[in-house]
Amino acid sequence: MDIVAAVMDPKGLEKEALAAAGEASSLAALNEVRIRYLGRSSALKLALRNVRDRDTGMTLNSVRETVESALDRREKELARAELEERLATERVDVTLPAQLLGPPKLRPRGTLHPSTLVRRDVEDIFLGLGYEIVDGREVETTRYNFDALGFPDWHPARSPRASLFLDDETILRTETSPAQIHKMEERRPPIYMVSIGRVYRRDTIDATHFPIFHQFEGLAIDKGITLADLKGTLLHVMRELYGPEREVRFRTHYFPFTEPSMEPDVSCFNCGGAGCPICKHSGWIEMGGSGMVDPYLYEFVGWGPEEYSGFAFGMGIERTAQLRYGISGIRPFWDNDLRFLRQFR
Amino acid sequence: MRIPVGWLREYVRVDATTAEIAQALSISTAEVNGIERVGVDGELGLFRVGHVLEAEKHPDADRLQLTSVDVGEDRPYSIVCGAWNFGAGAKVAVALPGATLPNGLTLERRKLRGQISEGMILAEDELDLGTDHSGIIVLEDSLEPGTPLADVLPLVDEVLDVEATGNRADLYAVYGIAREVAALFGGELLPMPGTEPPGDGAEPVGIGIDDPEGCLRFIGRTFRDVAIGESPLWLKARLRHAGVRSISNVVDVTNYVMLALGSPLHAYDLDLLRGGLVARRAREGEKVRTLDGEERTLSAEDLVIADAERAVGLAGIMGGEETEVSAETKNVLLEAANFEPIGILRSSERHALRTEGSNRWEKGVDPYVAGTAATYASQLIVELSGARWTGAEDVQAAMPKPATIRLRPDRASELIGLEVPEEEQTDILAPVGFDRLKSGYRVPTWRARDVTREVDLIEEVARFKLPEVPFTLPRRDAMFGRLTRAQRLRRVVEDALVGAGYAEVYNPTFVAEGDLRLPEPLSSEAAALRTDLHASLLEPARRNADAGADDVALFEVARVYRGRGAGELPEEHWHVAGIAEGGFAEAKWAVEQIYSALGLEPAYERTSEPFLHPGKAARTADGWLGELHPAVMEDTWGAFELDLDALADAAPEVVGFDPVSPYPELRQDLAFVVAEDVPAAELLDAIREAAGELLRELAVFDEYRGEQIGEGKRSLAFRLAFGSPEGTLTDEDVAPIRASIVDALATRFDAVLRA
Questions:
Q1: Which residues, other chains included, contact B660 with Cβ-Cβ below 8 Å and sequence gap of 6+?
Q2: Please, are residues B270 and B332 in contact by the beta-carbon 8 Å criterion?
Q3: A 149-208 residues with CB < 8 A to B
Q4: How far apart are CA B176 and CA B159, in angstroms?
Q5: What digits encode the pLDDT tens for the residues A7-28?
Q6: pTM of the model
Q7: What is the pLDDT of residues B402-417, one digit of tens each?
Q8: Contact B165 A236 (CB under 8 A)
Q9: B-interface mutation test, from A205, A338, A341, most B Cβ less than 10 A away
């Protein structure tokens, strides 16, 4: 098509170019189409160079844009098709052993995530005390996540502003305690268990907050369990985790599913109690929550309120890892940076 | 809540130091996050009452005064001052040279525009008593010059930062903390403050409760000829140290009494009200402009305080702007009420409006304390604003009767694990308000909400005994404690991958798309629960490679979630997924390590997935492995994902073994030329079948292509080992087996024996 034709019938030119692009069956062929219709000496380019009238210029430019984008689109299609064609020829026998296929790289030993290291330590400490380890569900009903645990109606965790709901009655567990109710429904005491895993809160991500963290929660229910047993058990666990010189103290607190409720503190392993930035100059480090199982829970699973007694406690895996390894903030746990992870050999 | 200790000590007499109080409260009542010292730091004796003997304009500075002040020394002090709200004869607050102000400035004797200035005449902000800097503090005329200023003004105090728990509304009050301190140290708790001011209170107020569920009690009191003005310094200082802004005398009184007693109050400009006040549900769509200037559209669930025509406040949360007390106010209506907690909580959430008031109501305030609060506020309003108390009404819905709870002393000792004698239990409970009756302990009205059962009383005893409770361990008569099979195998898989060079990562549960969506997503990238793990590995793999890490190889062990339809909780499965720089062989190697660690030999089949290289993708019964499609990840990456639960189910529970034969095995290598598209696994199966029971080992050990093999064909070499429990095998013994293998492969695959 010559310049005159291009000026006279720009739509015809466009139609012809689009058809040619569609017909090109290889990248090489497509390149020829591009040169023919958009190249330096193509009718369109020559017409654009010579046209003086504004309307014609705009029409021709719009033709140029349409053709260019059609060519680009087709180029992507062809490139993908050619890639697929090439890949189709690169077949391996997937049943061969890796040694014959590669061989694979000889890599230095890898690493477990610091949270896994702590998790295993916690598991082993409780296995030593004769506890079961329970994973539990992460998606729970509000019945098990709140009602069974005696969360009052006003408790802020019941709000979608604080917790992650899937619908009105389904929630990503806000603590691992629902697993304890399931265990209580499954069988009678003695129950000695630790539930460990991911829990969820609606937190905005910043240096110290992430909507997901890991908890370990213990539950012991038996005949004649006392608050003194709770103190003794946590003293043992804290000394296993933070060293044999640690002391543990308890402060009264409030939790929906325990009564009495207490928060355990551990004497600071950094300063030994003299006061330092790690313990915020108090000599004590807050560890989590604990208390005697509220009789409400026994009634919930259909037991008498005084047949058994028990204690429960809960702590954070990340927090434990932060304290043990001196990691500050929460981001390193989720950044997955090998420069960090590979140090945990 | 911030508790100024000077204020606290007004209600309780104890010898304990502030540090001792903080420590004891932390253990038995509520955590004290810190003790803040406020006000003057340093030598208090340098702060004095001064008597201005002379005051005139500074000769060389128009905006300064030159004064001569009697500060109780043998000569007057010469002080240059920038304020003009006083003159000769005034009693003022003076800091002498050497004194350190709360802002850290230490005063010196120095010259100001050529005149000696020996100290400073102080404004309230310079003593951290308030924010005003418009003039200096003018003290009462009756004070003697030289009187220590600390005797006149609260120059120094300590503030406890008490973090009470949500079940203890009574601790959101200075008096409530004082009650605990008295109990902790055996100190004397003084009666709640407040005595009725003079006045007959006979004027009708017009108070009503329309919603007795939302409002238990509504006290209205009127005051006339109120002089709205600034609060006295002591009150400003108290509020400032408690963290509340001073506004005007009347408003400050409502805040002060709330902080003192825990029952929030509100003051209205009586002349702006049209008719009396009623507590009622809002009409759907009704509007009220609250004190913060926001126009709020109400729903029928909101409780409001309304006059005859309109809502004048969001009950318990915030008053209305139209009826607020202002500088022009002459007459005041004071509201002291009691609101039901859940309704306030919901309204406060609905309007995203939390206030000092709502924060207390939502925890459940004692309805009986409203009366004391009204009395105390009336006393202070009359004292501070010169008002006349003219009207009073107290409308009560069903006020709760105090409960009585039985406490078995043995049960308490048993649960605590410490013998606490009955008399001691009574002695512990009495000071916090639990009176011993014949039938049990009467629960004080301020604890009615959180003490309802015997176990709650046991907690009351236990919290005062915590440090004495011994450390014991449960006596067990049944023992268990080992990982479940699934947990053990999870560790095995993790360890296998670590051995293969992989680093474990943790990725969030949330992804952009998925069938289990969060109705209120955390973000567009965190809107649904993930259904696979490998997609989460791409970004960290790419990022680590970009950061220059060598041999990137990552894995994750976590759960994936699939919906099961309405009414059923989703399926949760443990998966393991990995990604590694390198090609198909990397993925295969890792998967082989996993299976071998679990004692499994999987069958691999060719497969296709949109994200995998079409020629380098395989699946097993438990998942897939392959080379990532170049359109998914640049460069060459291997990846895999397996269902860990399925793997654990498949893994043999018991290790099987064959006895070791005393006779040596006979080894033979066989190589076949076969068409490219015949998978090695099929040949292995055929060989195994043809070889029969004497075959001990079988493996592919070489793959070869070349001109002499021919186009479209390859040579695969197998290593075989034969053995028999009955004797040493010879080549002759094995020859027929070998022949049947060759025969089988030739028939089924056109395979030709090469060597």
A1: none
A2: yes
A3: 153-156, 159-161, 164-167, 170, 172, 190, 192, 198, 200, 202
A4: 15
A5: 777 788 788 888 888 888 888 8
A6: 0.87
A7: 999 999 999 999 999 9
A8: no
A9: A338
Q: Nearest-CA neighbor of B361 among B313, B318, B312, B297?
A: B318
Residue B616 to residue A95, Cβ atoms within 8 A: no
Spatial neighbors of B558 by CB under 8 A, at least 6 apart, are A198, B506, B507, B509, B533, B574, B575
Which chain B residues touch A248 with a CB distance below 8 Å? Answer: 471
First CA to last CA distance, chain B: 89
Nearest to B503 among A89, A93, A338 (CB): A338
Per the CB < 8 A criterion, the answer to whether B335 and B395 are in contact is no
- Which pair of tokens denotes residue A23? 């017909």
CA distance A239 to B473: 14
Counting as low any pLDDT under 70, the low residues of chain B are 755
Pairing label, strands B571-581, B605-606: unpaired
ipTM of the complex: 0.88
Question: CA A88 to CA A82: how far, in whole Å?
Answer: 10
Q: How far apart are CA A94 and CA B619, in angstroms?
A: 9
B194: left (phi over 0), alpha (psi -120 to 50) or beta: left
Interface of A with B in 291-330 (CB under 8 A): 292, 294-295, 306, 309
Distance in angstroms (rounded) separating the CA atoms of residues A111 and A108: 10
Q: Which residues of A touch B631 (CB under 8 A)?
A: 80, 83
Contact flag A110-B502 (C-beta cutoff 8 Å): yes
The closest CB to that of A130, out of B453, B481, B494, belongs to B481
In B600-730, at which residue ranges do the beta strands (DSSP E only) sit? 605-606, 612-620, 623-628, 637-643, 666-675, 695-704, 713-722
